[in-house]
Amino acid sequence: MTFFDSDYTAGAHPKVLDSLCRTNHLHTVGYGCDQYCKSAAELIRKACGCDDARVHLLVGGTQTNATIIDGLLARHEGVLAAESGHIAVHEAGAIEACGHKVLTLPHYEGKVRAEDVKRYIDDFYSDDTYQHMVAPGMLYISFPTEYGTVYTLDELTALSRVCHSANIPLYIDGARLAYGLAAEGNDVTLQDIARLSDLFYIGGTKVGALFGEAVVITSNTLLPHLFPLIKQHGALLAKGRLLGVQFEALFTDNLYMEIGKKAVAQALTIRDTFTSAGFSTAVNSTTNQQFFSLPNTLIDHLKHCNISFEYWGPRGAEQSVVRFVTGWATTNEDLECLADALKSYKR
Amino acid sequence: MTFFDSDYTAGAHPKVLDSLCRTNHLHTVGYGCDQYCKSAAELIRKACGCDDARVHLLVGGTQTNATIIDGLLARHEGVLAAESGHIAVHEAGAIEACGHKVLTLPHYEGKVRAEDVKRYIDDFYSDDTYQHMVAPGMLYISFPTEYGTVYTLDELTALSRVCHSANIPLYIDGARLAYGLAAEGNDVTLQDIARLSDLFYIGGTKVGALFGEAVVITSNTLLPHLFPLIKQHGALLAKGRLLGVQFEALFTDNLYMEIGKKAVAQALTIRDTFTSAGFSTAVNSTTNQQFFSLPNTLIDHLKHCNISFEYWGPRGAEQSVVRFVTGWATTNEDLECLADALKSYKR
Amino acid sequence: MTFFDSDYTAGAHPKVLDSLCRTNHLHTVGYGCDQYCKSAAELIRKACGCDDARVHLLVGGTQTNATIIDGLLARHEGVLAAESGHIAVHEAGAIEACGHKVLTLPHYEGKVRAEDVKRYIDDFYSDDTYQHMVAPGMLYISFPTEYGTVYTLDELTALSRVCHSANIPLYIDGARLAYGLAAEGNDVTLQDIARLSDLFYIGGTKVGALFGEAVVITSNTLLPHLFPLIKQHGALLAKGRLLGVQFEALFTDNLYMEIGKKAVAQALTIRDTFTSAGFSTAVNSTTNQQFFSLPNTLIDHLKHCNISFEYWGPRGAEQSVVRFVTGWATTNEDLECLADALKSYKR
Amino acid sequence: MTFFDSDYTAGAHPKVLDSLCRTNHLHTVGYGCDQYCKSAAELIRKACGCDDARVHLLVGGTQTNATIIDGLLARHEGVLAAESGHIAVHEAGAIEACGHKVLTLPHYEGKVRAEDVKRYIDDFYSDDTYQHMVAPGMLYISFPTEYGTVYTLDELTALSRVCHSANIPLYIDGARLAYGLAAEGNDVTLQDIARLSDLFYIGGTKVGALFGEAVVITSNTLLPHLFPLIKQHGALLAKGRLLGVQFEALFTDNLYMEIGKKAVAQALTIRDTFTSAGFSTAVNSTTNQQFFSLPNTLIDHLKHCNISFEYWGPRGAEQSVVRFVTGWATTNEDLECLADALKSYKR
Questions:
Q1: What residues contact residue C276 under an 8 Å CB cut-off, 6+ apart?
Q2: Is the CB of A60 less than 8 angstroms away from the CB of B236?
Q3: Confidence class of residue C278 from pLDDT cuts 50, 70 and 90?
Q4: D253, D282, D298 — which closes off a domain?
Q5: Which of A227, A253, A279 is the last residue of a domain?
Q6: How far is Cα A208 from Cα A259, in angstroms, rounded to an integer?
Q7: Does C70 sit within 8 Å of B75, measured CB to CB?
Q8: Are D92 and B131 in contact (CB < 8 Å)?
Q9: Which subunits sit against C, judged by 3+ Cβ pairs under 8 A?
């Protein structure tokens, strides 16, 4: 079987796993107060170019989003997000379970536009009944988006400006950050992310860790009492050093970025394989997730060839949209299997 | 340094870690729907003697308590617990953050009594203003308790009866279940736990896993829609198979119980070392946590000898209560270090 | 000043106020357990044709919506509503504050369509990731809607069928129920409302009471423990009999329906006044709220004539949408003032 | 029937009701933005000696407590209160439903002691695990307490100092404030309450209003976005002017204080009636609630004489504790009825 279903179907990158094994027998204090978490935080601060950012290592993405969003918002505020955003669609109501409305904006292949954010905020405060509605208290975006697209530096700068003139924080969900930074044509650096947002997270689960996300808070007045919130929202690990050990490995010798580069290169190869065979992409993704509109007969054929990938939905009667994802565990043999399977398809 | 601080200061038992390494490169579906989770569930069902119990593997203890308690209680209900219970003291308000009051009962070395539970419920419903108060909707106990004590089979049976005649579920927090089952003089089996409670969890984090707790639901009408609740409460892992792999290892060849037995035997050795040297226990614990009242000069001496343990609080001017905990990583050399350190103490 | 701003700008209908004055010195038990609440409930049951419905009298509309929706939904569920629905827009996040997402449907002048509800539910359960999303747990509609429109009997029957085949309750917000029942061309009776929904509320605040809404629960298995929920959600009044006294008055001698009829007739007169003068309605409302697109110069002129009404928003450069509302306190003199003001307008 | 059950069994004081009737036909804007609310706020500010206090008029006591406490606390904080405090016992879990734990302190006839508050806070922050517990974020007290007792000026000053040195707000529940200010031997003025607390509320429901509580915020940085919180917590009234009209009446010609004085004098007469007949008080209350330990035979006899009061619980086999409460509606004839009934009792 060859797997392109997702970037969280395999375990940890070998270097990450090695670190876990090498440190397994050591005793440390719990809950993230150990030397590995400190060291990981220091490495992350350096990579971000933010000497005084606070870094917290949390268990997973849903937990991180719930902790951060609930921590940032006042009771009367909601979070602005693309209507396709993960928190708007796929958090099982975890944001609302904390008491907050997700205020949705139109999306353009997963991205929101600064002018839409500005208009939402302006319209809100110019409505006479605004006190009876949910105030926009922060902006959530993802980099890359759920559609595999990335914001340009100009777009990100514009969003940052709109947020800061409205005095609301900009939070970036970086569940797949490495793949965004390695995206074809991307002009945004990790330092830009750190500089333009108020806080963001660097995804580990989908980029070579067993689990774990690193929250980086650059606006230092935000979230003064984060620890108990982390615990309340299920984002705390008793053996917290497991997160430190993993992120230390990921931020040593540029491993995190290398994983991103390799997987994106492989994803673009997949894209070329399909497009040069005459099939078309469904979204202009430049990252490790590629979406295609394929004939249903081809989809059946690929499955027959033991190629596993994700079905997204029908497009007309004879085609469907599917998703192919690469990750640290994707091999060049996997790509060849796919290419071979495609060659053997008779239209 | 010799560590007796807690049972979650080291990584995973070598057999658990081996399983994680051996399966690391495999691809599986996410969120606990893989074959390892299924296999672990099957092994746990067998160990519990409950062929039709539902088993869910969750990330950690706080997450499990929040998910289960919030899932079981109606909006107007609270959870009965010992005033020393983990959910009453050390969950950072995670239960209240879900909207529920913890209704506290007196404790006797960490245990609650069936007659106190009955009286609470009877008094509640005989109060004319009960509709203005929080109804007791379930009972939470821990086995073993936060004081290292265990319920006898008679005590557990009595609690089960009181709950069932009041028609409220009995939930057992088994964060350290293996150590309770291996307790000196214990007459309760895992099957008894399964039979007498409506649901409980088998702790992995403190018994040889990197992390993870196995919820076992024996009352099958409870919690019909658990999956989204698991996600909402931060208890879901994307790479869910990590939980399956670990619990499969723990429930193969009786490993879970063996870890418990070894650690309890070591803890009782520590107890004997102290008591035969003339020091007294602070609690009648029969499990892997031992509490002593020691002279402050001895405490200083042990620290000087690089023995690490937990300080609980002063007892009078010259003594303090301390906690020593054993776990899978405790070695006999650790015990000898402690014994040597104690011998070299000059009163 | 002549007021058409809303139906809650004046106090109580004189008969309601008389009842409050007449009973003011009497002593009764609190919290709605008195004879007036019982008598009001009985009158309401009769009017609804539901001998065994449960009737609860709550303080206000937001409180009622929060209590009922939070009480009906399981933790993993959200409430389906028109994207223009009051709970989706104007409850200040009170529904999300209880932990629930409002799942929005397209609206057609405030109304939702049975086929859209069905499609939402079908699509939800046929999505492979549905467990990661918020399940549709009930349908909220308002009668009349926020746009002053009413469902036909056929439409309401279709919605009821869709809900019941999906096994989710249908809840009707009747904040302005009397005006809906009195709507021009309406073919739905109070008995139909009771028969086709699972529960609904009869609005008092906007129909002649000082405050108060009567919840009628016809599906008797729903909301078994409502009292503490009413208190938790701020919907309980210590001097609960004030609600009973008012609803007793409203449901004596058909007063509730008479208030509706009078105000709707007046609103339709206003509509005719504008349309026969050549101005157009902005919505096809048949109830006590009328929306017009008027030249901005006319709007200024009316204000100059001391006519007060609500501004809704611009329509193009020279026109705006405005709302005129009638209620128990609207007099025929008010209508004449408006007609005179309109006559004196020079285009 | 002669009623001493509670101070909320009758309607409004005649002057309050007159104001409601006199203003009933007027039109005003909704939600508390009208001239009556403004005028009431101004009168209250003057009475409190706080020219720049913010005053908000809310529907009821539970709603007020939930709004204020939820608004003041951060997510990781709880509210300190006497274990007998209303929010700890009789709010149906409304505080926990907002996500906050009530942290209980020992009580002395309903009062908490400054040294206990200080010790709680000191102990909390000196505990190594404090980040895993709920932080004390504010202090809630009631004046008078649920036992009818009042704090002395010294006690209140000490509590204020402890709170302010710990940097947590002091909030006073004044549901029965008038009766506390009129208490026998009381040395605390309304101005003291305003000066020593950060915010408090002046109860209307139990002191002559149909309903309504006036929140007075003297620490002006607190609760900057209160309006939507008021709505979220069910404390907002559409016809908000009803609250303004009532509090305007209560704060005109000293009515609020007069109601308190009269009722307290009557309560003390009741106390004297019982004690001079040889019966004893159960609590040293100096306000409008009086608690007695009476023989069960006397209790039966009084009921026989159509005297209505509240049963609190048994005291031994032959006696029970009962509560007698006076209010604006208590008449001197009521007191005579009681005295006569007592005289006719044969031991």
A1: none
A2: yes
A3: very high
A4: D253
A5: A253
A6: 7
A7: yes
A8: yes
A9: A, B, D
Residues A67 and A164 in one domain: yes
Which residue of chain D is at minimal alpha-carbon distance from B132?
D92
* Long-range pairs for C309-314: beta carbons < 8 A, 24 or more residues apart: C309/C4, C309/C5, C310/C4, C310/C5, C310/C6, C311/A128, C312/C282
What are the residues facing B104 on neighbouring strands?
A: B81
Whether residues C336 and C248 fall in one domain? no
Instruction: Say if residue A339 is in the same domain as residue A303.
Output: yes
- D19, part of any domain: no
**Judgement on whether residues D178 and D279 belong to the same structural domain of the protein:** no
Q: Any idea what DSSP says for residue B34?
A: S
Distance (Å) from the alpha carbon of D232 to chain B's nearest alpha carbon: 15
Strand partners, D221: none
pLDDT in tens, chain A (347 residues): 999 999 999 999 999 999 999 999 999 999 999 999 999 999 999 999 999 999 999 999 999 999 999 999 999 999 999 999 999 999 999 999 999 999 999 999 999 999 999 999 999 999 999 999 999 999 999 999 999 999 999 999 999 999 999 999 999 999 999 999 999 999 999 999 999 999 999 999 999 999 999 999 999 899 999 999 999 999 999 999 999 999 999 999 999 999 999 999 999 999 999 999 999 999 999 999 999 999 999 999 999 999 999 999 999 999 999 999 999 999 999 999 999 999 999 87
Same domain, C240 and C336: no
For residues C125 and C217, give the distance between their C-alpha atoms in angstroms, rounded to a whole number.
28
* Distance from C-alpha of D50 to C-alpha of D216, rounded to nearest angstrom: 9
Asked whether residue B68 falls in the same domain as residue B192, the answer is: yes
D101:B99 CB<8 A: no
Interface of A with D (CB under 8 A): 70-71, 74-76, 99, 131-132, 134-135, 225, 227-229, 231-232
Same domain, C243 and C266: no
Q: Say whether C238 sits in a helix, a strand or coil.
A: coil
Whether C225 and B71 lie within 8 Å, measured CB to CB? no
Chain B residue with the nearest C-alpha to that of C131: B228
Best mutation target, D7, D8, D29, D96, to test chain C (most C CBs within 10 A) = D8
CA-to-CA dists, residue A238 to B14, B63, B236, D128, angstroms: 19, 11, 15, 15
Chain centroid, CA D342 distance in Å:
30
The predicted complex's ipTM stands at: 0.97
Range of the domain at C27: 14-253
The answer on C89 and C18 residing in a single domain is: yes
Asked whether the beta carbons of residue A102 and residue C101 sit closer than 8 angstroms, the reply is yes
With a cut of 90, say whether residue D315 has pLDDT above it.
Answer: yes
Reported as a single tens digit per residue, the pLDDT across D35-58 is 999 999 999 999 999 999 999 999
Domain holding D134: CATH number?
Answer: 3.40.640.10
